[in-house]
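<given_protein>
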Amino acid sequence: MSAHSIEVTAGMLYEAVAQALAPMRGDEWVGTEARFRIQPLGQGRTRLTFEHLGLVPGFECWDICQDGWRHFLASLKMLLESGRGTPYELEEAAHG
């Protein structure tokens, strides 16, 4: 396993400027914000908090987005804990 480190001095914010979720409405994500906050807890522990501001249940993509974020965040956790994540595992299985 290789070690990687990133020094973060503040939260990270990403503003969605485009989306590629066909056949959903192409502009639902535009203007939303994905926020990642990293908080050291001590004793080698860290808390990562994620919010997708502006993503609301009324969007056509709500269910797929909820499932997608759940999958990718679980994959990120696995990567950080074991050195291997599975970010595209579901997509690869679907396309066989």
Observations:
- The longest helix spans residues 62-82.
- Residues 12-95 form one domain.
- Confidence is low (pLDDT under 50) at residues 1-6.
- The chain has two helices and three strands.
